[in-house]
Every structure is written in structure tokens, then in C-alpha cells.
Amino acid sequence: MKYLNDFLITGGTGMVGKSFLDKLPNAIYISSKQYDLRDPVQTNNMFEEYRPRFVIHLAARVGGVLANMNNLGSFYYDNVMINTNVLESARIFETEKLLSCLSTCIYPDKVTYPLTEDQIHNGTPHQSNFSYAYTKRMIEIQSKAYKAQYGCNFISMAPNNLFGQFDNFSLEGSHVIPAMIRKIYEAKLNNTRAEFWGDGTPLREFTYSKDIPDVSLFLLEKYDSPDVINVGNSHEVSIEYVVSKVQEYFDFDGEIFWDTTKPMGQFRKPSSNEKLLDLGWKAEDYTSMEKGLKETCEWFIINYPNIRGMNG
Question: Which of the four pLDDT bands, split at 50, 70 and 90, describes residue 89?
Fold first, then answer.
């Protein structure tokens, strides 16, 4: 096979995709406006045109809890078609290695903590996003099947809660940190209080999106198993702590209101990145949550309101 490009990145205009620009400036960055990866013909056309040696597969239809619950069927169809077509075209065009990005949402709702890779298929995912989670699980199954039959070197990683610049800051469709950033910043602009669900005590792990390129290139060099590998920063912080840091970075001294009548989710969902550390990755290689959050808040100030999701 004659390769025309070293790297092709699907989902290349999203938050994680854009984080690769500094590390891989010459990669091919694909957006949904260029190719509809739900369509096998368009997906094949993309591979025919670029013939990449390595593929980093980030493309997905994603959203927060509300978006998932309201679009269970369409989230399933879109994601299962995207993943199936990308891996199949990579097989046809003899891609040397493909890395897919999953999520810790693939884990069962009832699981033993910390989340370890051997537990992924031990039960059903949380009902709020089960369809999306199953499509991500199927990437591992397809990768294993293709390795067994065709010898494809397809691997997949599962980060935890990602955040960073170029995120989706919609109040209805975003994840916790971008929604938090927007609420506090607009509360400061409008001289109102910032409201959050629960009491702020639940603990979460967050990984800065700019760490994903380093992890990805590390795995492309060091990891060849089709089994999913956790790659998130396993340092836990409370939701209340994250709110306090965003307040600090925005110099917001207004009221924070915790609505304890609203659900706040599981108290903890810790994950294990021991497999990654055993390969030689070091905990200190992650950007601290504080540094990543500060950089994201600074970026938000500069780019507001011309930011993805601001109409929602």
C-alpha cells in the first residue's frame, strides 16, 4: 500500500481534534462538513483521497446527559455507522494503525471502583446514555474481530471527563466544566447568581484535552492490543472545588447557589490508569486540572461570545 499521508484525524475540528494541531501540524484534519462518515461511500472516498498510514479516530456525535436522553436512537445510529465505516475503510485501505477514542461512559452502571478495563462488558451502561455507550463498546469488539480475521492493528483508549478550549459551551448539550464556565462568566456579566445542581460534593476526574495528543502518540508507539486502555488523569476533585477555581479565574464574587432539590449523580466514579502507567506513562505527564482550567477560562474570555454552543 502506498501511503500519501502519515496522519489522518477524524473529528478534526472538535475540541480534541484541534488539540492535535501543535503536535501534528501536517496531519489531515477531517470535519463532518467534508465527509459524512455515516455513509460508507463517503468514508471510502476519504480514505481513497488521503491514504493515511495512521488514523486517530475522534469523530462522534456527542452531548451531555440531556442530549443523550433526548436522542437515544439517533445517537446510536449515527455513532455506530461512523465507527463501523471508519474501521472498515481503514481495513480496506490497509491503514498501518488506527487509534479510536472512547469514553469511560462505556463502563457498566453497577461496577466495582476504580474502573478497570476488565469490567467493561460486565453489565449495562447507565440508562441515560446507554445507546452511545454501546456504540463505543462496539469499537473494541470490531477492533478485536478485525485483528483476529485480518490482522488489523486497531487500538482504542478511554479517557474520562475531557475539558478544554473549543469545547461545546451549550447550557443544554455540554458537559459539566464548559457549562460551569459559561454560567459563572455570564453571572458576572449580568450581575446575577450562578446556579448549579446538587451540593457540590461529588468527586470527578478531569483530563485536559491538550494531554490527549501526547497520550495518543505514546499509545501508537507503545500499545498494540485491541483491548481498551484507560488514559484519563485519575486525580479526583469535587465539583465544588472546580466551581471555586472558575470563580477565582473569572474574579467572580457573586452568589453561588446549589440547588439540592436537583440530582447530582453518583458520588464518585474513579477510574484506573494503571495499564497506561505500566507502559511507561507517568502521572506527572498530565497537565494539572488547575492549569488546564485556567487556560480554558482565559481562552473563553478572549473568544466570548463567538464560541461553539453559545446559541444553546
Answer: very high
